[in-house]
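[step 3/7] fold_predict: job queued, chain A
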Amino acid sequence: MSRPGPFGHPYLLGFEEIERMLERLAKQAEAYPPCNIEELGEGHLRITLAVAGFSNEALSIVLSDQELSVRGERPQTEEDRTFLYKGIAARGFQRSFILAQGWEVEAARLVNGLLRIDLKRVRLAPDVRKIPITIG
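[step 4/7] structure written:
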């Protein structure tokens, strides 16, 4: 019986986690807040999120198992206001990015309503070992 999906080839072993990651990314249709991803140079990337109206205290960045999550929480206001037009989103958000092995967060800065997260590639040493063969 063959395995379905893009990693169903019999020589691709142990890629179930990547398949789950791709499924998780496909479900993320949320485009709020808007973001840019740019290459700053060899081995350096920057994610910029437009987070106008969010304070430093209302934002959090967490890196867990190669998933970078950015969350913004809007405080609930108790004011009784009547809007004639409300075009500014007043909701919290969570955006996630999956980082490949060897990428780590270098810095994060909030400047003029833009949250900039700088990433850098750390060169990993190749893992080459001779496997002994036992008899019996």
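[step 5/7] annotate
The mean pLDDT is 84.
The radius of gyration is 21 Å.
exit 0
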